[in-house]
Amino acid sequence: MSRRTGTTGTGTGITGTTTLAFVESPVQLLNVLEWAHTRGVGAGAGGASAGAGAPGAGGSGAEASGGKLTLVVLSPTDPMTRGQLRRMAELARQEGHEVRWEEARGGAAAPFQTIGGLAGMLRRAPRVVLGDPFSRYVQLLLTITRARDLVVVDDGTATMEFVAQLARGERLVRWHRKGGRPGPRDLLFAPVASSARRRLTPGEDRRVEIFSSMPMEETPTGVTVTSNTFAWTRTRFGPPRVTKGADMVGTSLVETGVVDADRYVAAVRTLARTHGAARYFAHRRESTEKLHRLAVETGLEIVRPDLPLELIARRGPIGRTILSFPSTVVHTLPLALAGTEVRVAVCDIDPSWLTQNASPRAQGFLSGVTGSARDVHRLAAVGVG
Q: Which of 254, 251, 266, 260 is nearest to 356 (CA)?
């Protein structure tokens, strides 16, 4: 496979691009599609109304009144994420958008080749959309762009922390790492991170928009905040067939070192038994070993989704109750499933479940994720013995 693939789209090239978007995860790509739908950017004559199974639908994105959108996928290496990204890229093409696939992590030289190949596009694009301002890749790209318009779309609950840090003028650090001492690589990269934070701060010649479904306690001065209501998802898919049982949503809190694995498995087992859950929708970052253990010890059917859960749930079938721990989906699923009979229930993380290496911010952040969720049923932390 070549390092750069999937560059074909509905246009004839990239010179007409008015919006350049960088994504590294399926959820980021979904939220770029939601933003483009809201703004009327790159949507072809039939893109939004075409059937979900109609390859190539959408017409010419370059002819849309909102300008042309080119999506650049900075591909990760893990197979599950790559698979979901390829499915999302096909949906983006059906909507009339150009997609450029970059093997951005395919060897030691890949980052230099990727950034070098994107430099010209970055300098020409008047608007740049990005999904993860904490990403070092994205921060490097921000040092090159001359765009007057910058848009940050959701990368899950991390957006809440990004907005708060930007409002307080703090350095950009992921919430589950905050409190730890910067390592040598952090110190080496600090000038780039500082430059990225400055570029994400509005100025006389630069506008910054945050497109989000997350609640915001603090809004940075001069930043425009636009609500993501998942209008594209609801227009494109569903409504789903709703079953009588319950489904459970997995989380990567064990993999990020926040929650103890034994406590997590015990909590899943208790929740599944209490609420009659049959399926467990795995997070794309959950390890194979943990998922095997969950299947053996809980009896749940483990499902590895091929699309973000918002689309899986909207297509259906889906349980009448969706059980989750504090995560992005407690904010996004009620929006994607608006008008259906599905109830989202979130279980709190007991402080005793946290590992010794968990950030001091972890408990407060997770409680905030749950407490700020709208239209969800809140469950007390379950006893795990």
A: 260
